[in-house]
């Protein structure tokens, strides 16, 4: 079969064809990785490579090798395997449906399982002796793209099943896919939950990158072209072209490798070959673009170019090939270099207008300049010397120097001195070189170096590498430019300053004096002579001046901005170069002493030394996930899991972390606590958490303990705990501070009381710990300092509560002791919480319990003060302490029985005013119910009916019955009644009874003549009509009635009619109320 070429490879279409494939080191590496991973048990592979890198061709060659058709690769997966390869090319369809169609699976039910079953049947048919089934999906990304937009969960689950099916190490099944971008890129539009699922499925695959570097593409081209015949003259020209390419440094290619392939590449010169391969990677929109070029038959291709006028297939020829074959893309808005290509096109048109002769030669030069600017590396030397030599040797232009001068004179091209290359001019009337010279007369001499440097230049911070590596804490030094030594304190992510001082009026002695007094991590760099930097700033100001004067000339401004960027880079170079040299105009000073710096390495070593000196108490903590100023979002999740483990599993070994997995939260526990000997729980007697003696955390532990001790007298905020840790001699990173504060506070939770905005916080949960970290200024702690007589007082409380006495107090003991008081208050009725009908001491104790936010303050200040004692008086006299406890017992008792007292008063009122004698609840309840048995209920108003219903209630609980009566009388239960409403209750009750008595038909049989008097009253007037009332009074009220009668009689006149009228009016008013 003859070898044929195709512009792209299709693994299904071309499986039986013979293609021209050359294995590269990259493709061999990929094969070796697949073989090695297969032997380790990995079966699912995802090959990732951009367009045009040859993934499909590689898959084709891999299959040819596996099937023994052609040995491109030496593959040893199994010994003498029996192989079947199933190929698919991705489509914008459901992968489930495509595979179902292939295997003719028609059932929708259990379709995934049926497809996998078909795969296994294929595998089983290969026999038991080394079977090997390979599923290959090229263009897998099209399936993923469809999956992301149509039922992602369903599609992705099938891909996961497929991968897990292949990953079974008991079977020899390989699942091999190829995509042109990362797996995650297809999940861009999904929800967070779906993205997490996507990432999980991605983890089932072994990702292998497949991007051929330029060297490998050159290798492919050289292997294809190497059989050419050349004479001595050609060899000499190849050698010259190689020399030009090396000196130019236009492309990052190994010189030895360049020498090896240069001859094989002919007729391509090395510059043109690099331009070609880079351009094909950028503009080639299908695979095998390089082979398309090598096999091309059009007039611009390597097999048809004009060899008479072109000694090599040069950069100009490459330009023609790219324009001819990629015209549509190059001239589209998707081309990232569209502006550059347009500039080349415009310059070619301008050349035809400006010149009558040598048009083709001018065009070659312009095409070469244009493509070099698009593809060559920064820092290349592409000046006139290079361009002339390349034009003479590779372009075949003998008078190249003159032609280049003509193009310059016509301003078709411009030379950029700072970047050492020609550029295509886009057209401007401004002579930039002359304008910059003239600007020198308009710009004042540079006096204020500091202000201009701050505006023009920002030096990147420097990491003290040695210190960071040894201690785990990244120490960053920020550059500060000033005219006097700074006196600042490093904050946040910065741990020190490199202070560059520009002030020629300042002496080195003055700088040393300031440095000697400086306690922070500041190293001073004093410039005694800043002429070079001053001159460069002058150049920058000149360029800015020209830009300001020509801001309407967009093309000139664009070029001037490029010059400005170069000048700013040059300024950076001058500053950075001076930092690490032995030049006498820059003096380094630390702690008042001059330091010799001769290299960048030595300077960085000095910074590490400064960190060790200024921050001696920083612990060694090698956990890069946490030991930083800002932890990543993923570690925020780990922080929550760590805090949860700390709060819930503190009494379990290793906080409950088990097994062989090491999630971030477990790593944090190991590096922060376990490695430093910090245990949270032990069965040992008198166990106390400590840091191991050899741990670097001892300084931090001792500081933390000192802080707790300082909070014995007064509360201190957590922010006060944190702030010293952000400064020397600690200067901890915020990530470590957060984890340490939470861990230490939890470890010592029994030694202090914690307070938030809402008061005392009895229990330390993971949520509370997270809030403390987030808002430390909102939380305070008070360390327990209870000993001596105070301990006696506290134990008296515990005896009062029938609790065991304690020798040492902790948070748990305080909670245990204060809890009964708080529970007692919480269970009181609303009446008991608000009534003022209590003794003064009882009221004070109630308020003290209600407002208790600090157990220690409640026990030792508020409770004694409420009962008229001070802590000092209780400490001096045991008799007073006993008296205090007795008073406390009495106050609690009165408060507890206050509601019962209200019930008793209400009951006494009913018995005295309506029953007339003492009797039990069931008896007087029955009496009241019988009193209104003959009530004319149809004449009752709604509130009267409600009252009667409550009277007739079958409730057998006295408290509930009386409370329901009160509810009917005044619309409130007794539990919620206010003091001032108690008399109102009695008055309304009397009124209701009187109203109901008047609506009741009674006979002689209904009366209890021994215990009550009954009066029927009927009054008639022309205005109000007839009014009737029935008054029933217990005989016990006779004396009270007699007293009122005597008072009235004493006031009566001698006129009987007047007396009757007066009494009638009084009676009338009383009946109407």
Model description:
It is a single chain. By secondary structure, this protein is α/β, with parallel strands linked by helices. The protein folds into six domains: 185 residues, Rossmann fold; 214 residues, no CATH class; 166 residues, no CATH class; 151 residues, no CATH class; 111 residues, no CATH class; 122 residues, no CATH class. The strands form five sheets. It has a six-stranded mixed sheet with strand order 8-9-10-11-12-13, sandwiched between helices. A five-stranded parallel sheet has the order 2-3-4-1-5, sandwiched between helices. It has a four-stranded antiparallel sheet with strand order 14-17-15-16. Strand 6 and strand 7 form a beta hairpin. Helix 5 runs antiparallel to helix 6, helix 26 runs parallel beside helix 30 and helix 35 packs across helix 38. The chain is elongated. The N and C termini lie far apart (125 Å). The N terminus is likely disordered.
């Amino acid at each position: 079969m003859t070898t044929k070429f195709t512009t792209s490879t299709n693994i299904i279409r071309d499986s039986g064809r013979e293609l021209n494939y050359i294995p590269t080191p990259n493709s061999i590496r990929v094969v070796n990785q697949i073989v090695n991973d297969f032997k380790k048990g990995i079966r699912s592979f995802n090959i990732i490579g951009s367009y045009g890198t040859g993934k499909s061709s590689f898959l084709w060659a891999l299959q040819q090798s596996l099937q023994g058709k052609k040995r491109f690769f030496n593959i040893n997966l199994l010994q003498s395997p029996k192989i079947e390869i199933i190929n698919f090319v991705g489509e914008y369809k459901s992968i489930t449906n495509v595979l179902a169609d292939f295997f003719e699976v028609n059932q929708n039910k259990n379709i995934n399982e049926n497809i996998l079953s078909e795969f296994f049947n294929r595998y089983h048919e290969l026999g038991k002796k080394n079977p090997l089934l390979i599923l290959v999906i090229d263009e897998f990304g099209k399936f993923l793209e469809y999956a992301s937009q149509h039922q992602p969960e369903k599609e992705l689950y099938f891909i996961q099943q497929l991968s897990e099916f292949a990953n079974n190490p008991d079977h020899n099944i390989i699942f091999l896919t190829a995509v042109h971008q990362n797996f995650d890129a297809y999940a861009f539009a999904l929800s967070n939950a779906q993205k997490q699922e996507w990432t999980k499925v991605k983890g089932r695959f072994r990702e292998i990158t497949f991007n051929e570097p330029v060297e490998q593409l050159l290798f492919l081209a050289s292997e294809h072209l190497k059989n050419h015949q050349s004479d001595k003259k050609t060899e000499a020209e190849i050698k010259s072209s190689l020399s030009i390419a090396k000196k130019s440094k236009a492309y990052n290619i190994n010189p030895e490798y360049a020498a090896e392939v240069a001859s094989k590449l002919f007729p391509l010169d090395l510059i043109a070959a690099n331009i070609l391969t880079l351009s094909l990677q950028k503009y080639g929109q299908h695979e095998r673009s390089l082979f398309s070029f090598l096999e091309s038959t059009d007039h611009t291709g390597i097999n048809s170019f004009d060899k008479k006028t072109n000694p090599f297939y040069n950069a100009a020829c490459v330009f023609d090939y790219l324009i001819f074959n990629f015209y549509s893309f190059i001239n589209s808005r998707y081309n990232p270099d569209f502006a550059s290509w347009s500039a080349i096109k415009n310059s070619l048109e301008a050349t035809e207008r400006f010149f009558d002769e040598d048009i083709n030669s001018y065009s070659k030069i312009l095409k070469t300049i244009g493509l070099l600017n698009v593809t060559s590396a920064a820092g290349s030397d592409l000046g006139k010397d290079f361009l002339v030599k390349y034009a003479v040797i590779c372009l075949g232009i003998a008078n190249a120097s003159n032609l280049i001068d003509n193009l310059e004179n016509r301003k078709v091209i411009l030379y950029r001195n700072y970047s050492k290359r020609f550029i295509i001019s886009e057209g401007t009337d401004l002579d930039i070189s002359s304008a910059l010279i003239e600007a020198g007369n308009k710009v004042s001499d540079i006096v204020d170096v500091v202000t201009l440097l701050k505006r023009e230049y920002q030096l990147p911070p420097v990491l003290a590498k040695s210190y960071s590596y040894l201690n785990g804490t990244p120490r960053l030094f920020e550059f500060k430019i000033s005219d006097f030594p700074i006196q600042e304190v490093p904050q946040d992510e910065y741990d020190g300053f490199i202070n560059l001082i520009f002030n020629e009026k300042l002496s080195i002695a003055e700088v040393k004096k300031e440095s000697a007094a400086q306690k922070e991590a500041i190293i001073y760099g004093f410039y005694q002579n800043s002429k070079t930097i001053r001159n460069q700033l002058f150049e920058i100001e000149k360029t800015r001046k020209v830009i300001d004067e020509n801001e309407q000339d967009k093309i000139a401004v664009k070029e001037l901005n490029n010059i400005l960027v170069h000048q700013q880079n040059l300024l950076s170079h001058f500053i950075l170069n001076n930092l690490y040299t032995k030049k006498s105009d820059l003096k380094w000073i630390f702690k008042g002493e001059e330091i010799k710096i001769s290299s960048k390495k030595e300077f960085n070593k000095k910074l590490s030394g400064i960190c060790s000196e200024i921050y001696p108490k920083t612990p060694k903590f090698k956990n890069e996930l946490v030991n930083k100023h800002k932890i990543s979002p993923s570690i925020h999740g780990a922080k929550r899991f760590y805090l949860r483990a700390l709060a819930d599993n503190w009494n379990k070994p290793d906080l409950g972390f088990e097994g062989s997995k090491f999630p971030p939260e477990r790593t944090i526990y190991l590096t922060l606590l376990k490695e430093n000997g910090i245990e949270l729980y032990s069965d040992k007697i008198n166990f106390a958490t400590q840091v191991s003696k050899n741990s670097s955390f001892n300084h931090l532990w001792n500081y933390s303990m000192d802080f707790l001790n300082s909070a014995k007298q007064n509360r201190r905020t957590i922010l006060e705990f944190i702030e010293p840790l952000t400064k020397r001699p600690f200067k901890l990173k915020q990530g470590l501070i957060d984890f340490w504060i939470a861990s230490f506070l939890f470890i010592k939770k029994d030694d202090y009381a914690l307070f938030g905005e809402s008061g005392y916080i009895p229990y330390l949960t993971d949520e509370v710990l997270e809030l403390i970290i987030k808002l430390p200024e909102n939380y305070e702690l008070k360390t327990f300092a209870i000993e001596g007589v105070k301990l006696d007082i506290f134990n008296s409380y515990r005896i009062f509560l029938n609790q065991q006495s304690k020798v040492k107090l902790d948070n748990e003991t305080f909670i245990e002791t204060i809890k009964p008081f708080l529970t007692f208050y919480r269970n009181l009725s609303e009446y008991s919480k608000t009534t003022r009908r209590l003794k003064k001491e009882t009221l004070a104790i109630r308020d003290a319990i209600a407002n208790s936010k600090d157990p220690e303050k409640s026990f030792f200040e508020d409770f004694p003060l409420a009962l008229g004692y001070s802590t000092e008086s209780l400490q001096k006299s045991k008799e007073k302490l006993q008296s205090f406890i007795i008073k406390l017992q009495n106050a609690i008792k009165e408060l507890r029985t206050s509601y019962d007292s209200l019930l008793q008063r209400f009951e006494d009122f009913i018995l005295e005013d309506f029953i007339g004698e003492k009797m039990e609840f069931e008896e007087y309840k029955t009496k009241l119910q019988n009193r209104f048995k003959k009530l004319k209920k149809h004449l009752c108003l709604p509130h009267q009916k409600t009252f009667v219903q409550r009277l007739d209630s079958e409730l057998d609980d006295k408290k509930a019955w009386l409370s329901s009566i009160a509810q009917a009388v005044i619309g409130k239960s007794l539990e919620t009644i206010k003091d001032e409403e108690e008399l109102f209750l009695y008055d309304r009750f009397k009124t209701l009874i009187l109203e109901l008595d008047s609506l009741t038909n009674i006979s002689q049989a209904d009366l209890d003549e021994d215990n009550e008097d009954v009066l029927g009253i009927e009054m008639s007037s022309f205005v109000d009509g007839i009014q009737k009332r029935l008054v029933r009074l217990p005989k016990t009220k006779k004396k009270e009635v007699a007293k009122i009668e005597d008072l009235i009689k004493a006031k009566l006149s001698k006129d009987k009619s007047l007396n009757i009228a007066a009494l009638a009016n009084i009676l009338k008013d009383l009946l109407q109320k």
